[in-house]
Design goal:
The protein is α+β, with helices and mostly antiparallel strands. It is built from three helices and four strands; from the N terminus they run E-H-E-H-E-E-H. Helices cover about 40% and strands about 25% of the residues. This is Glutaredoxin.
Length: about 80
């Protein structure tokens, strides 16, 4: 199971990024645990300077804007 953290204050883009992660994982058959991180200090501590940010198994893979669907699928498949 992959541990995913979606960093963001709760804006529409952050919600969309979270939904993209869940939908892509379901389509790939990858089991994930998604945690939404909204605390500004925790977001900064993770190194996210622009939201939404996505970390997979503790590694920040994306920050700022919505991720590319193909890249997201690649990250989840790795």
């Amino acid at each position: 199971m992959k541990s995913i953290k979606v960093y963001g204050p709760g804006c529409k883009r952050c919600e969309t990024a979270e939904a993209m992660v869940k939908d892509t994982a379901a389509n790939l058959g990858v089991e994930v645990e998604v945690e939404k991180v909204t605390d500004p200090k925790a977001i900064a501590m993770a190194g996210v300077m622009s939201t939404p940010g996505i970390a997979i198994d503790g590694k920040l893979v994306h920050a700022g804007g919505l991720p590319d669907a193909a890249k997201l699928a690649g990250w989840l498949s790795a």
